[in-house]
Design goal:
By secondary structure, the chain is mainly β. The protein has one helix at 3-28, and strands at residues 38-42, 62-67, 83-93, 96-107, 113-116, 120-123, 135-137, 142-147, 158-168, 173-183, 191-194, 206-208, 211-213, 218-221.
C-alpha cells in the first residue's frame, strides 16, 4: 500500500471518529427538555398531542405517544376518564433515538350541572321523592342528589325554598333551590242522602257546589 493511501485512510478514519464524537456530543447535550414531570388536564379536555405542551425550546421532530386504549374513554364522549396517563416523547437524532416519559393527570374540578329543577305543589301530608324530579349531569357521573329536609315541612302549609345538593363521582358539589308550595287539603264535598219522609213538600233549594237542588225526599249528609 502506498504512502498516499495510508495517509488517506488515516485522515478518513480521523474524520469519521470526529463526526461520531460530534454527533454524540450534540446528542448528549441536546436533551429533550421537559417542562414538568407531571401535567394536569381538566376532565373533558383531550390530552395534548402537541410537543410544545411538554417541551421547552425546540420541539421539532418530537413525536407524542399517549399510552391509552378505548376503555379509558368516558362513555359516549371523546375524552378520557379521570386518572393518570403515561405519555412518551420520542425524538430521532440521526440513527439514535431519544425518549422521555411524562405523566398527564386528568382531574375533575368542575361542579355538576343541575339542568332541570321544577317548582312543585303538594297538599299537607303528601309525600314525594323530590330527587326524581331533578335532572343533573356531569362527565364523571352523578353520585347522589340530596334534598335538605330542614328547608321544608310537609305537615304545615306554606311556601318553602327547598335546597338541593348534587354530588358527582369526583366529590364536586353543586346546590340549587326550588319553590315548594304546601297547601291545606280541600274540604270534602257535601253529599246527599235519601230521606224516607218528606216533612216539607215545598222545600227551598239546596245549593251543592253552587248549584241549586230540589230533592224533596233528600237531605244533605254532613
Amino acid at each position: 500500500m502506498s504512502k498516499g493511501k495510508k495517509v488517506g485512510i488515516i485522515i478518513g478514519s480521523i474524520v469519521l471518529v470526529l463526526l461520531i464524537v460530534f454527533i454524540l456530543i450534540v446528542y448528549l447535550y441536546n436533551p429533550i427538555k421537559i417542562k414538568s414531570d407531571e401535567f394536569k388536564v381538566e376532565l373533558g379536555e383531550n390530552i395534548p398531542t402537541d410537543a410544545e405542551f411538554y417541551i421547552e425550546g425546540d420541539s421539532n421532530d418530537v413525536k407524542v405517544d399517549i399510552i391509552s386504549d378505548k376503555s379509558d374513554l368516558v362513555k359516549d364522549k371523546d375524552c378520557r376518564k379521570v386518572g393518570t396517563y403515561k405519555v412518551k416523547l420520542n425524538k430521532d437524532f440521526f440513527w439514535a433515538n431519544k425518549e422521555e416519559e411524562v405523566l398527564v393527570k386528568i382531574e375533575d374540578t368542575k361542579k355538576p350541572e343541575i339542568t332541570e329543577i321544577p317548582d312543585l305543589d303538594l297538599f299537607v301530608g303528601e309525600e314525594m321523592d323530590f330527587a326524581e324530579k331533578i335532572i343533573a349531569s356531569d362527565l364523571a357521573g352523578i353520585e347522589s342528589i340530596d334534598v335538605d329536609k330542614t328547608t321544608y315541612d310537609l305537615s304545615k302549609a306554606g311556601s318553602y325554598k327547598v335546597k338541593v345538593v348534587v354530588k358527582d363521582n369526583s366529590g364536586n358539589e353543586a346546590s340549587k333551590t326550588f319553590n315548594l308550595e304546601v297547601k291545606d287539603k280541600p274540604k270534602p264535598k257535601k253529599k246527599l242522602k235519601y230521606s224516607k219522609s218528606n216533612p216539607n213538600p215545598n222545600p227551598k233549594p239546596i245549593y251543592v257546589d253552587g248549584e241549586p237542588w230540589y230533592p224533596c225526599p233528600w237531605s244533605i249528609e254532613e
